[in-house]
Amino acid sequence: MNLKINLPALLMTFGLSFFPLLLVVGPLIAETYLVIIIILSLFYIIKEKKYFFFNNKFFFYFSLFYLSTLFSTLYNFYSLDASLSGIFFLRIPLFAIAVWYILETFNIFNQKNLYLFTIFLLIIIIDALIQYYTGKNILGYEISKNRISSFFGNELILGGFIIRVIPIFLVFLLMNNNVREDDLNLSYSTIISLLCSIVYLSGERTSFFLLILFFFVLFYFSNHLRKFVFLILTLTLIFSLIFPKFQLNDELNPSKRMFTKTFNQIIGDGKNTEDHKRKIFDKIYIFSHDHQGHYLLAYKIFKDHPIFGTGVKGFRYLCRNKIYILEKNDGCSTHPHNTYVQILVSNGIIGFVILLFAFIFVIKEILKSKNKLNIQKKFNKNEISRGIILLAIFINLWPFVPSGNFFNNWISMIYFYPIGFYLYFNHLNEKEIN
């Protein structure tokens, strides 16, 4: 496709490169951009008759999951407002297709975009540190619940945002040849290490665990990046030990939340063991007393809706129903706080199996990608980038952690953003084979 420099081209290229920035600005801005590029991409795909974007197993899989979501939502119709997110969920997988189309059509992996991306991340780092030490960020947002959030204000999602941005940033570095085999690149490794330390300072335990998981699996996955990863982890440890030393407020010490509070919540320190919420083996709770309440309540609801589920917002509508309610209204919330439990309740066994299949597929693809790199014994930046994106999807689908609402617009967009990158690199891989 030969487009002149025009508004559609600018929207698709620069908007995609800085989509993480749009998520910081606000979900409404990101959602608006999402709708625009879906419309533009569909228009050009049809105009150019590039139907391979839809004639593939991935789009078939997305369609199956969407149909599962749509059917469960309409079958359990509570209200139009409650059903809209399920009905219009198709836009999220279409967003991944649009990302794929833009990457196929334009070169967004250029030095200019990388420099701007780096500046954006440096602003996040500086702003988070200012908030950590002064109590306010540069926009005046104060620390909430003894946790920094930078530009996200009362939304305590800074760590979750950073862990999803780091893999994309790594891909930009690889595709621009800023990271090479056995090249430590001290400047960029320092920036990534600072981002990792901000995740620690944010006190987001799930994000911190997923961060460690990502880099350990990346270390295993790529022999070519092991020195680079080792340097990042070493610098992260150093920064994470140094930064709290200069914070006089002991309540902002992340180690208390990360380790002490986590341990106390798992063993249920200070909590009486109710009959309806007994500890596992009379020893521990699943993540915490409250989380276990979510899961027990979700299981009670699931037993009455096992095949098709309760619909996207069924859990929040049914959790206070007298036939499900636990003692003291324990466990009731907007969602069950675990992706797999949520899909099991909302989409039933059918949707759960589709999601589980995706997780198994991603693991299989990671292993295949690692074997390919081992056989080639060369620094293949396309294949390594593909593997990094697979790891980004892997941590999003990791089942054994508390998680946000899967059908929340912000989370859905940041989950499907890397899937578009994977589809692009996977298509590159197929073209190399053919």
Quick tags:
mainly alpha, 17 helices, 434 residues
Class by alpha and beta content: mainly alpha
Quick one: how many beta strands?
0
Q: Which H/E pattern describes the elements?
A: HHHHHHHHHHHHHHHHH
Which oligomeric state applies?
single chain
Biggest sheet descriptor: none
State mean pLDDT (0 to 100 scale).
Answer: 90
The end-to-end span amounts to 22 Å
Topology summary:
Layout: H1 7-17, H2 19-25, H3 27-48, H4 57-75, H5 80-87, H6 91-105, H7 111-134, H8 158-175, H9 186-202, H10 205-221, H11 226-242, H12 254-267, H13 289-304, H14 314-318, H15 339-376, H16 381-397, H17 409-433
Helix pairs in contact: 1-3, 2-3, 3-6, 4-5, 4-15, 6-17, 7-9, 8-9, 8-16, 9-11, 10-11, 10-16, 13-15, 15-16, 16-17
Notes on the structure:
The chain is an all-alpha fold and 434 residues long. Helices cover 67% and strands 0% of the residues. The chain is globular, with a radius of gyration of 22 Å. It starts with 6 loop residues before the first helix and ends with a helix.
Brief sketch in words of this structure:
With 434 residues, the protein is an all-alpha fold. The chain has 17 helices and no strands.
